[in-house]
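Following up on my earlier message about P1T. Here are the inputs again, as you asked, copied directly from the submission form:
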Amino acid sequence: ELRWTRRAAEEAEAVAAISCSGHGRAYVDGVLDNGRPTCECNTCYTGADCSVLLSNCSADVNSGDPLFLEPYWMSHSSESAVVFSGWHRMSYATTDRYQSIELEKHIRYLHAAVGNAITHDKYLVFGSGSTQLLNALVYALSPENSSSAATASVVATAPYYAMYKEQTNLFNGREYEWKGVTSKWMNSNKTNFIEFVTSPNNPDSLLRDSVIAHSSVIYDHAYYWPHFTAIPAPADGDVMIFTVSKVSGHASSRFGWAFIKDENVYNKVLNYMQYNSMGVSRDTQMRILKLFKVMLENIGGDEDIFKFGFNKLRKRWQRLHALVNSSSRFSLQQLSPQYCTYFENIRDPSPAYAWLKCENEEDVDCEEVLTKGGIISRGGMIFEASTRYTRLSLLKTDDHFEMLLQKLKPLVASSKE
Ligand SMILES: C=C(NCc1c(COP(=O)(O)O)cnc(C)c1O)C(=O)O
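Thanks, got it. Here's what our run produced:
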C-alpha cells in the first residue's frame, strides 16, 4: 500500500502524460503555466503543445546532446524511475570518498559486460560530469612543485575536443600549461607531456592512440561504447575517463568516472575532488545506479540499449552518407565496418558525429556554407582544424536529424553535375 510516495508518483505520471505533440517534453520541474508544467519544445517547434513548426528555422546539430536515447528510457519508464524521500542521504558523506559502493560495483559490472575496459587493477573516481575529471587529472599528472622546468605540457592531436584547451587555459595551474597540438612536439626532446587522447575521437569518430612517446596519457573514452563504435578490444590505459552523458544519455545528471592505475595519481584526484566540490551529488549517484541496473538487466536481449543506440545511429549515418555521396560538394570521414567483440560480428559505422568537409574551391568556410543553408554546426576552427570542416551532431532527436537532412538536400543538390 503506497503511502508517502503516492503523491510523487502521481505528479510524475501526470506530467509524463503531457504529450507536447511528440516535438517536446514537459518536466516535473518545468516552468508552470496555470499550475501545469509547460512543454519545452525541440528546436523549430513552438506553441503550447509544440505542434507549430517554425518556417525558415535552422536545423541545430551543433551540440552532442544525447537525446537519441530518450525514446529508449521512455519505453523503460517503470524500471528506470527513482523516487527520493525528502530525507534521502542528507549527510555530506557516508563513505570516505563520497562514492556509492553499489554504483562503483555496477560501473565495473557494466564494463565487464560490454568488454570495453579492463578495470580490476584500477582505482575508480566519480566526477560531476567527466568534464570535472579532466582538470582533476591534469592537476594529478602534473609535478608537485611549479618550477618552470618541471611544468607539464598539456597537448592533444588535432582535431580535438576544445574543452581540453579551454579548461586548461582557464584554470591556468602553475604546474601545467596548454602547449597545443601534438604535431608541434613529435620530434621534440622535451619531456613531461600530458596528452589527451580521445578514442573514438570527437569530432571524427576515429579510434586513436597516443602519439607522444613517454607522455602521461588521459584516455577520454566518452564514446567507447557499442552505440558509437566497434569494440575491438577492452581499453587498458593507466588513466581512462568515461561519462554517463554518452552511455545512457543523461548529460544533465552530470556524472562521469575515471579509472586510474597509479595510487598516487588516484589520491591526488581524490584530493582535488575534496577541494573542488566535496564529491558528486548522491541524488545523481542513486539515479545513475538505477539506470545502470536497467542497462545490465537488458544486456544481450531485445531491449539492449547498445542495440537500440547502434541501430539508431547506423541508420542515421547510412542516410546522411547516401545524401552526401550523391554529389561531390561535400565529403565525410572514412569509416569502415569493423569486428566488434560486443556484438560478436563485423558491424557498420555508427558515429556520434559527422565530420563534413566542403570540397568546392569557393566553400572555404564550411560552417558558414551550412549556416547560410539553415544548418547550425560546429566549425573546424574550434577543433583546431581547417575551416573546410564542420561537425554535425548525430546524437540529437529524430526532429533534429530529419531537419538536418531536409536542409542539407538542397545544398548537396546545388552542385550536382
Ligand atoms: C557534448 C559534447 N562533448 C561532451 C564530451 C565530454 C563531456 O562529458 P560530460 O561527462 O558530459 O562532462 C567529455 N569528453 C568528450 C570527448 C566529449 O565529447 C560535444 O562535443 O558537443
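One observation from looking it over: The CA atoms of residues 134 and 247 lie 18 Å apart. Hope that helps, and feel free to reply on this thread.
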